[in-house]
Design brief:
With 250 residues, the chain is mainly β. It has one helix at residues 21-28; strands at 2-7, 13-18, 35-46, 51-62, 100-105, 111-115, 120-124, 132-135, 153-155, 160-165, 170-175, 182-186, 200-205, 211-215, 220-224, 232-236. 3% of the residues lie in helices and 39% in strands. A hairpin with a 6-residue loop joins strand 11 and strand 12. It holds the Pfam family NHL.
Length: 250
């Protein structure tokens, strides 16, 4: 940026602002959250009798900062609720639930509810107001029974239900129509050995029928191959909670 002084016959001093447009372009590329627009036009006409200078400068600065909240696709909650299962009152009738603790949905939109207080798994077809019992016949340790701490379920592509029978320290696989389940991980007694599980919560099954179990009290994740009687430690340290020194908080 340069300043030149021109002396007129009237002895008035006029400062002519000449802007190096290349320099201006370099300056305006560094932008911040404020929007700045600079427009400068400089025209100089020289004749034998006089010097005529015309300078037009317009500088507009906007300090408005606009914060955009990212949009989220999908519907996660509807302010108008719809009841899919239960009556709102605890009970053991086919249209009632008691302390439900988990749900799963199959490819046909059938809803499966872990009816923990009634020691059963209920299936609700779309539009139904009553459920169908598909697993469990009461409280106990037999293969047709579930514990009071039954938690979560997983449905595979063959409509087998894998049940996290928490207080019985086992995972049961129940095929629709069967009257008893099959133990696929753990057993009745809890422990820290790899043939045992202790207070299972989450359960997930891959396409090869490997069963993955999140053991709440053992602080570990184990994998059980199809037909296996012992699991394989996948994550965690058996019986020891905590984090490593190099773990960074999220």
């Amino acid at each position: 940026m340069f300043f030149y002084t021109v002396r007129f016959p009237t002895k008035q001093l006029i400062k002519i602002l000449i802007v190096d447009l290349a320099e201006l372009g370099t300056t305006t590329t560094a932008t911040t959250t404020s929007a700045t627009t600079v427009t400068t036009t400089s025209v100089t006409t020289v004749t034998t009798s006089a010097v005529t200078t015309t300078t037009t400068s317009a500088i507009t600065t906007s300090a408005t900062i606009t914060t955009t909240i990212p949009s989220t696709s999908g519907v996660y909650w509807n302010t108008t609720n719809k009841r899919y299962a239960g009556t709102g009152s605890s009970g053991n009738a086919s249209n009632q639930l008691s302390s439900p603790t988990g749900i799963s949905i199959d490819s046909n939109n059938n809803l499966y509810v872990t009816d923990s207080g009634n020691f059963r798994i209920m299936q609700y077809v779309p539009g139904a107001s009553t459920g169908i019992k598909v697993a469990g016949s009461g409280y106990g340790t037999a293969l047709d029974q579930l514990s009071s701490g039954t938690r979560y379920t997983y449905l595979d592509s063959s409509q087998n239900i894998y049940i996290s029978d928490t207080d019985n320290n086992r995972i049961l696989r129940w095929t629709i129509g069967d009257t008893i389940g099959t133990i696929v991980a753990g057993g009745v007694t809890y422990g820290t050995s790899l043939y045992q599980i202790y207070y299972p919560y989450g359960v997930w099954v891959d396409s090869n029928s490997n069963v993955f179990v999140a053991e709440y009290q053992n602080h570990r994740l184990t994998r059980w191959a199809s037909g296996a009687t012992t699991g394989v430690l996948i994550a965690g340290v058996t019986g020891s909670s905590g984090k490593s020194n190099d773990e960074k908080p999220i």
